[in-house]
Amino acid sequence: MQQLDLPEADAFVVGSGPNGLSAAIVLAQAGLRVAVLEREASVGGSCRTEALTAPGFRHDVCSAVFPLAAASPFFRSLPLERHGLEWVRSPACLAHPFDDGTAALLWPSLERTAEELGAPRYRRLLGALLPRADVLFGDLLGPPHLPSGPAAAMALARFGALALRSGETAARRLSRLSSDGRGDRARGLFAGLFAHSMLRLDAPMSAAAGLLLALAAHSAGWPLAKGGAQAVTGSLAAHLRSLGGVIRTSVGVESLSQLPATRVVVCDLTPRQLVRIGEDRLDAGFAKSLERYRYGLAAFKLDWALDRPIPWTARACAEAATVHLGGSLEEIAESERAAWEGAPSPRPFVLLSQPSLFDASRAPAGAHTAWAYAHVPNGYSGEAAERIEEQVERFAPGFRRTVIARSVLSPSDLEAHNPNLVGGDISGGLFDLGQAFLRPTARLYGTSEANLFLCSASTPPGPGVHGMCGYHAAKAALASLQ
């Protein structure tokens, strides 16, 4: 296969998602000449903003709310604000409405959240973790390693004691002392948090993602990026260029043999894509281990252009950029179980974002944008749009009358947008006990080639916009050069 016409570089990074750009920044900071190669016309991977519905409306194609970006030790070390990144925070991080017209809220304040939920166990657990939040994020957002000290070890033990449990168990444990009828509300809100794991809620470790998001809520918030997700990757790209890095868009790497000889190649790809482009370089046994990597549930996503805000029955929902639609713990658990069993629930758990309530740049004056997605089986080819809209209508009667235009992205559409979203999996692969720590193989970022590394969400610490997969992969690459 003919080589690509590329600049001379010490390191090539294939893919310009947040992890690819983060890896490139670390390599450039170390003095290497770095070139990022992106198959699409713009950088960002799944962290991009586009006009999906009607003129003047800007929609985040995938990533949209950024709790882990705000908490990321690496992002916080970079001057991204100088390159245009501005965080926008809604008063509440999350709203979870119920059929009686009320809503439970996750506030930045731990005290307010625990008081309103009547959940003293939640207050005690998060209260013990919050003073060590920065250290915890540093330890949790990385490869398996020993804690950074005795205090960190104790905090990790507290975190892990609940994180390794099932979401159902954790939701009941955290709300067990809830009083005055608030237990069901607390369990519903916690179940929505734990459903971010994209696992069955009776599965071990399905509590981990939600607990991490709760810690982020009370320490860093759940911000939006002003102007859209593209501002995150745009600021990373601008910082890379300020370090001398080069970015080439509309460059599709079909085979690693197309790249000129270089010291390091880092791929922001999942195992399936790496096997495809590296088949002539990877050891056969290692390639087979990558082929055994498992992908998880898919997302089925809708974007709407609206002529007014969503008419929530629970007015408190207007306080939060993120809204979870699913009612009770039992209903959410059944929705996630059904998706894993191959028959999506008629009342799916829906994750919704309404960014234009807090960022007017997303839509024309007086108009609004919103997006939502539900979990469906990997590769699902059926219909889910009507069921998602019915869930919104359930908690916001009259919602459909506000819709000017809508975009539907099925799992296959998401994969066409970004091949890393295999079968519509937005997490870079199943994040369960078998793949949470040694992902995608025991080599973590390394491969059978000494100068070839992986940095996607298929490596530790896994899914989320935080750049830490890229950071650690680049550190591993640099160590190999010494």
Short recap of the structure:
34% of the residues lie in helices and 15% in strands. By secondary structure, it is α/β, with parallel strands linked by helices. Strands 7-6-12-13-14-11-15 form a 7-stranded mixed sheet, with helices on both faces.
Characterization of the model:
- This protein has 482 residues and is an alpha/beta fold.
- It contains 17 helices and 16 strands.
- The radius of gyration is 22 Å and the shape is globular.
- The model has no long low-confidence stretch (mean pLDDT 96).
Instruction: Return the structural class.
Output: alpha/beta
What is the CA-based Rg, rounded? 22 Å
Question: Which of globular, elongated, flat, extended, rod-shaped describes the shape?
Answer: globular
Q: Report the sheet-strand fraction.
A: 5-15%
The main β sheet shows up as: 7 strands, mixed
Low-confidence segments, given as residue ranges, are: none
Tell me the distance between the termini.
31 Å
**Total helical segments:** 17
- What is the average per-residue confidence, as pLDDT, rounded to a whole number? 96
**Order of strands side by side in the largest beta sheet?**
7-6-12-13-14-11-15
Number of strands: 16
The share of residues in helices is 25-40%
